[in-house]
Amino acid sequence: MKYEGNIYRPPTEAGSLIVQITIGCSHNKCIFCGMFKDKKFRIRNVEEIIEELKEARSTYSHIEQIFLADGDALIYKTEDLIKILDYIKENIPKCKHVTSYASPRSLLLKTQEELDILHQKGLNILYLGMESGSDEVLKYMNKGATASEVTLAGQKAKKAGFQLVIMVLSGLGGKKLWKEHAISSGRVLTLIKPDSIAQMTLNIIPGTELYDKVKLGEFEVLTTNELLIETKLLLEHTNIDQCEFLTNHVSNYINIQGIINRDKSRMITQLDYAIKEDNIKKRSK
Question: Quick one: fold of 11-284?
Fold first, then answer.
C-alpha cells in the first residue's frame, strides 16, 4: 500500500485495511483542525486504487474491513467509487464492511439515488464529522456547513441505509458558547437519529488559527469540570432510541458508553460522580 503523509482513522477502524483514495481533506479550512494542513487535496486515480487492492489481496489472506481514507473519501466520483466497491465485492469476498469519513458537503453533493447505490454496492458505515449543531459555533470554526445542512446530510445518509456514526467535539464552543453548543448539538442529533455518537474533546493544536485565538485570549478553553458538565447537558438534550453514545477516544477525560435513551440516566449519573470528584480534588488542593 502507498500512503502519503499522516493517516487518520476512527478508533473503531484499528483493524481495518486503510486505502487512501483521496489525499487530504476537501474542505481543510476548519480553524481547530491540524490533521491535513500538510497536504494539498487531490483525488487519486481509480486505476491506482484497484492496483493497490490487488496488492493487498495477494499480501493479506484475511481482510474483513476496509477504511477508505483520507478526510472525506465520499467526495470521490460516484462512478469511480462504484468501481472500487465492485472490485472489493468480487475479489475480497471476506470483507464485511467498507467504511469512510463523510462531510456534510460530500453528502449533500450526492443525490439520494447515488447514496442508495453506494450503500447497495457495499459502502455501509459512514463517519460524519458534525462537530457541533450550533450555527454560531460552526461559523466561528469555519466548518463550511450550517446546522440545517448537517441535519439534511445526516438524514440523507440514514435514508440510504448507512450505519451512521456522528462525531461531536466537546469544548468546541469554548466558555462563551458551551451551552449553545451542547443544547444545539443534542437537538440536531435528535433530528438525525444516528446509530452512534462518538464524542471527542477539543485539543488546541499549535499552528492552527484557533491556537492563535487562544493565545490572544479570543477563545477560552473549558476546564475538565466544565467539559463534563457540557457532556451532561448534551445528553440531557439528546432524545434517540437505540443510538450508542461513546467517549472512547483518547482525547476524552472520561470513558462512558451506553445506549440512548435506555442508558441515559446511568451515563448522567457517571458524569455527576466525575463532576463531584473533580470538585473534591480542587477543594483539597
Answer: TIM Barrel (3.20.20)
